[in-house]
Amino acid sequence: xxxxxxSGHSHTHEHEHDDLDLMNDPTLASCCEKDERAYxxxxxxxxxxxxxxxxxxxxxxxxxxxxEPPKEVAITTSAATxxxxxxxxADRLREIAVAQEDSDDDSDFELDDDLDEVxxxxxxxxxxxxxxxxxxxxxxxxxxxxxxLKSLLDELKSSPQVPRVALVRSSRLDEGEVREMLxxxxxxAKRYVGTKFYSIVxxxxxxxxAIRQLRLSSAHNLVAFRVGQRVDATPIQEKDxxxxxxxxxxxxxxxxxxxxxxxxxxxxxxxxxxxxxxSVEKSSSADEEPVFDCGKEGCRIRFxxxxxxxxxxxxxxxxxxxxxxx
Length: 326
Description:
Blueprint: H1 19-24, H2 30-52, H3 54-65, H4 77-138, E1 144-147, H5 149-158, E2 164-170, H6 175-191, E3 196-202, H7 208-214, E4 221-226, E5 229-235, H8 238-242, H9 245-259, H10 275-285, H11 314-325
Parallel strand pairs: 1-3, 2-3
Antiparallel strand pairs: 2-4, 4-5
Helix pairs in contact: 6-9
């Protein structure tokens, strides 16, 4: 059999052949049949890719939208009729647009009335929030109170139901070093309006007894109080005042205060009330569940939730010591 090159035909695909042509044409060799099948597959693949190609689709759409106007357009009777219909349609669209504008004006007035009601309600809400913030600040909530240790101990006795957090620091730190710490503490106080926050500067000659009573082991401490008693205290190093105050509070101090169960978002009502209302509250408070107290000094979750401390008591230790001596 002669090769496809000797048979005198070319592989150019100016037209396609069907299976009958391939069967009846003895000049087409097997390589031509393979080439024909490959060509058909390539054309099919090209058709699929072109159909899915967004660029080709955009080109086709652009060609449909942007068309070159004909060089010479003869205005025939049908063209004149179409132009008249287009003019009538344009007039109709103008009438609809004018009517729509009038309707929009009425809708705008109705929308303005609705917005006025929304704005009025929002103003009332903001006014109530502002009034409540002023009331809280007047009672010592949502602000940072500056006091001394003696006054703090007196407040713990007079209103023990209010949880408190106190930053007790030495007088050797100036205001510039603690400014960021106090600023962040004020932010926390605004978040937890049910807890009172204090900033206290100690004086060694005046506050020694109070420092021993609160068992403060460091020059700078954050102390948590609940039910009028000290829950726990965490020392703050001087280098902590130089670090980012927001990170220190969010990463360390707020979780620690949460563990101490002294952060409250709603305030306790400590204002004086009429005698009748106080008697009603006293009778109702008798039925309330008392606050849990594990009774162990130095336990930071003393008032948090019910728990017990497992271990030998001091009496048991004394008995074992006496038994060993015998």
